[in-house]
Amino acid sequence: MHIELNPDKRYYSIGEVSKAFNVNTSLIRFWDKEFDILKPKKNAKGNRMFTPEDVKNLQLIYHLVKERGFTLEGAKTHLKEGQKKTLDKFEIISKLESVKTQLLNIKNTL
User: Fold this and answer.
1) pLDDT in tens, 41-98
2) Phi-psi map region of 22: left, alpha, beta (phi>0 left; psi -120 to 50 alpha)
3) Cα angle: 105, vertex 109, 20; to 5 degrees
4) Would you say the pTM of this structure is higher than 0.85?
5) Which residues form the HTH merR-type domain (predicted)?
6) I need a labelling partner for 23 at 20 to 30 A (CA). Which of 3, 16, 57, 95 fits?
7) Do 29 and 48 form a contact (C-beta atoms < 8 A)?
């Protein structure tokens, strides 16, 4: 799953994030409680506002739990032990998927 981040946007609402991942907001709230690497700000109403870094971390959590089938505890351990290596691999995979999508779009216009 590759999510395009708007470079001008500093915060994303939980609704925007859940829609981008095609999951319920309750799952995003649950992951926020479970994973220390998520640190959304809360506005005056108490609504979570996710930074681009939070969204990248959510992508990583989504990848581990939903795509690779990790348990929550397994994902937490994996993030703690090999966060940098995992993040580097995930970013490479995301970039390759983006390039693939662009190439397929070009192919379809030919």
Assistant:
1) 998 998 999 999 999 899 989 999 999 999 999 999 888 876 666 667 777 877 888 8
2) left
3) 30
4) no
5) 11-81
6) 95
7) yes
Flag whether pLDDT at 2 surpasses 60.
no
Across the strands, what pairs with 37? none
Terminal CA-CA length for the chain? 26
**Segments of the chain assigned E as strands:** 12-13, 41-42, 48-50
Work out the number of other CB atoms within 10 angstroms of the CB of residue 76. 17
Residue pair 47/13 in contact (Cβ under 8 Å)? The answer is yes
- Size of the chain, expressed as the number of residues it contains: 110
Burial class of 57 by CB neighbour count within 10 A (0 to 12, 13 to 18, 19+)? buried
